Amino acid sequence: MESVEIVVAHHERATVRVGDMFLKIDSDQTRIDAEVAAMAAAPIPTPKILWRKPSVLALAALPGTALGRLGEPSSAPPAAWAAVGSALRVLHDAPLPPKPGRTPDQLEAELEAECAWLTTNAVLPRDVVERNRRIAEAALRPWTPAFTHGDLQLAHVFVEGDAVTGVIDWSEAAQGDPLYDLATLTLGHPERLHDVIAGYGDQVDLEVIRAWRSLRSLRGVRWLIDHGFDPSSPGSEIDVLRAQASQV
Questions:
Q1: Which 3 state secondary structure label does DSSP give 142?
Q2: Handedness of CA 199, 202, 203, 206 (dihedral sign)
Q3: Is 51 inside any structural domain?
Q4: Cα–Cα distance between 126 and 8 in angstroms, integer?
Q5: Secondary structure E strands in 93-156
Q6: pLDDT tens-digit profile of 166-199?
Q7: Is residue 57 situated within a structural domain?
Q8: Running DSSP on this structure, what letter comes out for residue 95?
Q9: What dihedral angle (degrees, nearest 10) is formed by the CA atoms of 90, 207, 218, 110?
Q10: pLDDT tens readout for residues 217-228
Q11: Are 218 and 136 in contact (CB under 8 A)?
Q12: CATH of the domain at 106
């Protein structure tokens, strides 16, 4: 009998692995529907859907290994990171998905609320929050919407050698700022950004990418705590916020 491995679990959803199959169990069926629609529309490799039932989506395992893990050095060669950049260019140039993303005004309101919560609860020193809040302002500007993954963490991208074998977890895919995907991908590995840009093949605003790192991290700390994760683990959001603040 094959063992069952809990990949990730929190109050909203869980993913378990049984052999070469992943089962995504979600309390909100609309998220599963959105993920299936996004994978069908994405012009880059995604996992094969084996079957789906209410609240459960079964996916085949992807070949290769994750691009990296937060808090750990990435063993992927520069060519693999560049290949991910090339895949992102294809995704961002694709026709827009129907799901709208957050507007700059919505993000600014969320950012204000999270900064207030972080300082009120003394989760981080006030100066670290305020410095990151100032950095994040550069992301709150109009952008040309693109087909974005929306949660392009290192562990969501699989590579084999210097080729991308697939991208997982499409539940947050929406119209958004393409630089947000680049910022999320390199959140714990900013030194790899130039490799990604080499494959992406376009001029990008490095300050906006840096701003998205601060904005994502400021917005993410409370969610992680509320769902049983540790935002202070190596390479995670609190590490990012401290590093960003030290560069001001």
A1: coil
A2: negative
A3: no
A4: 31
A5: 146-148
A6: 999 999 999 999 999 999 999 989 999 999 999 9
A7: no
A8: P
A9: -80
A10: 999 999 999 988
A11: yes
A12: 3.90.1200.10
